[in-house]
Amino acid sequence: MDTTKVNEVGVKILHEIYKAEGQITSYALFRKMKIAISELMKALLDLTSRGYIRQDGEKLILLQEGIRVLFNVRRTSEGGSIPEKMIRKVSLNRDSFYIPSLSRMDRAVVGRRKI
Q1: For the segment 61-94, what is each residue's pLDDT rounded down to a tens digit?
Q2: Which domain holds residue 31?
Q3: Which residues of the chain have pLDDT under 50?
Q4: Bridge-partner residues for 4, per DSSP?
Q5: Model pTM?
Q6: Is residue 40 in some structural domain?
Q7: Which residues contact 2 (CB under 8 A, 6 or more apart)?
Q8: Number of separate domains in the chain
């Protein structure tokens, strides 16, 4: 298994196969991807050699390692980062109880009573 980074086309392919419940025909994938067939085939060969997908006749099947890679992909776009003010400086003990602040909860969740 190769652990080097998967390119953008490879990630899109893994995502499309995942959305199709783990298997899709190569033709259907080609129609959804809207890229050149040569680029698609190169990416499919790369993903197959890394052990992320398996080709069974006309079907492309997403393997467990491909799912793991897909979920480990971090988006580096501006929308994918966590704002600094949302990052907690103190870590919580996993055995400690969480007590929500009722004043910050949605009234529809808590009920109509005054908080």
Answers
A1: 999 999 988 888 754 444 566 777 777 677 767 7
A2: 8-72
A3: 75-78
A4: none
A5: 0.63
A6: yes
A7: 49, 50, 51
A8: 1
